[in-house]
Amino acid sequence: MQNANTIAELAIAMPEAIPVLERLGIDYCCNGSRTIQHACNAAGITPDELLQLIPKATTGNATPAWDHAPLPELIRYIIDAHHVYTRDALQRAQALAQKVRAAHGERHQELLVVERLVAELTSDLIPHMLKEEQVLFPYILEPVPMPFFGTVRNPIRMMMLEHETVGEKLAELRELTMDYTVPDDACTSYKVFFNLLLELEADLHQHIHLENNILFPRALELETNERHNAECHCG
After folding, report:
1. Whole-angstrom Cα distance, residue 112 to residue 99?
2. Which helix (H) or strand (E) holds 12?
3. Rounded distance, CA 207 to CA 86, Å?
4. Is the C-alpha dihedral spanning 120, 123, 129, 131 positive or negative?
5. In whole angstroms, how far apart are CA 203 and each of 69, 157, 167, 198?
6. Are the C-beta atoms of residues 7 and 20 closer than 8 Å to each other?
7. CA angle (31, 33, 35) in 5-degree steps
8. Structure confidence by residue, pLDDT tens digits, 39-80
């Protein structure tokens, strides 16, 4: 699979695979370090079967190839395509969670937990994205000799831990709703709400993939090279 060994490397090398991975429930963002074989085993599919499915994906909906794009372009895409969307989607999801729980919570008590998880995702992600936009991303674009956080590894480690927390809550939402299965008595708002959560989940997977698997490794490599060059000049 184009010399890819891990599921993250596959998603980077073949962005058109992302819709397939989403459909199969294969985590390519927070757990992208798993080998393709391991990820396929967990999904009940062979690597060859996965490869056969990839050309059938709708490439227009796949994440663009960003592994060699200029970092300013990648960061601008993350903010414009994902941060903007996430803020809007979370606001809509919170309103729908409250409305649907009020109308259906007595018969579907899991909606109480769904509403809480949506609120927790919001309280996690809004400050998370702000920290990226105000601290991490500006440093990646214009490094300073002695940042207050010491090395970019520190904020990146924190961002990745927060990504894991988000991934856990998304998995909990999916399990709680039985893969977002809409009950027979669901109203239109109920259906719209679950469709929005599905869309938000897929977007967050791509969002986290771009950061964990592409932006952050490149930022670490850039800082290492710059510090090495600075040491050589000083010497």
Report:
1. 11
2. helix 7-13
3. 9
4. negative
5. 20, 21, 12, 9
6. no
7. 110
8. 999 999 999 999 999 875 454 444 567 888 999 999 999 999
